[in-house]
Amino acid sequence: MSVQSEKNFRINGDLTAAEDLTVDCAFEGSINVPGHHLTMAPGSQVRAAVSAQTVTVQGTFEGQIEAEDLHVGPGAALNATVIAKKLAIQDGALFNGSVNTERARAAGQVARRRAAQRADVPAGS
User: Closest by alpha carbon to 60, among 49, 73, 8, 31?
Assistant: First the structure.
């Protein structure tokens, strides 16, 4: 599946697909492609929360990416929070943001769950 457009075309919203997806336009919102590959083509401008098995960025991206594998191609520009098991950044790419491994995400979930449990315990117990 491919989301392509002429220049100055912008999509706002939530996009979910059950197949590989290529975005070749301006997109703002969320993209969920569980178990599949999301490609942001050269020239694309994406501002979103993204979740996919594999993400390849060749354009401009701002937001959050959660993936097993993230590939950042030459000429790509990212300003992102990334949660990924594997990260590859090629020469010529720009990256600004934070990277967490899956282990860090799991530890954060455990810490939040424990904090919530402590908040539920009455004082003096």
Answer: 73
**Residue 73 belongs to some domain of the structure:** yes
Question: Which structural domain range is residue 22 located in?
Answer: 2-120
CA distance 1 to 92: 28
- CB burial string 103-118: b at 16+ within 10 A, e below: eeeeeeeeeeeeeeee
Q: What is the residue whose two structure tokens read 């990260």?
A: 87
pLDDT digits (tens, 9 = 90+) for 7-62: 567 889 999 999 999 999 999 999 999 999 999 999 999 999 999 999 999 999 99
| Domain-located, residue 39 | yes
Q: Tell whether 77 is covered by a domain.
A: yes
| Average pLDDT over all residues of the chain | 87
Other beta carbons within 10 Å of 36: 15
